[in-house]
Amino acid sequence: MSDKFDLNVVNHFFKKDYQDRGKQKWQGFFLSDHQVALTKQVNHDHRQDLPQQTIESICKGLNNAVLTHQKVLIQLKSVNKNGQHQIVEARVIKFNRQCILLESNLFLDTVNVMALTTL
Q: Which of 10, 15, 56, 80 is spaced 20 to 30 A from 66 at the CA atom?
């Protein structure tokens, strides 16, 4: 093998044989969990708070969600470390004026609900 460097061979290789994979070659550096967390954080940061609703309008929305089997987005009165209201997204199994049972077997006190919307 020769120690001589032939620029024509290199140019031919990059023009005809080599195919750059672009972003694909960098995807291995990002763990999928990290990507999911970043996406959730970006979506969460751009979310607008829902206006405070009365208990009657919350119960009406819950009733509608139960009857139509729709998921609801429930905004709680409690805030996280970033000062944003916590969000729960799930289907409602049953509810009354004091408590809400969600499909994930999660119970919420109705008094802790600030607002909700169907998805």
A: 80
How far is 90 from 86, CA to CA, in rounded Å? Answer: 13
Are the CB atoms for 69 and 91 separated by under 8 Å?
yes
What does the CA dihedral 91, 95, 101, 103 come to, rounded to 10 degrees? -20
Q: pTM for this structure? A: 0.59
pLDDT level of residue 85 (50, 70, 90 thresholds): confident
pLDDT of residue 84: 82
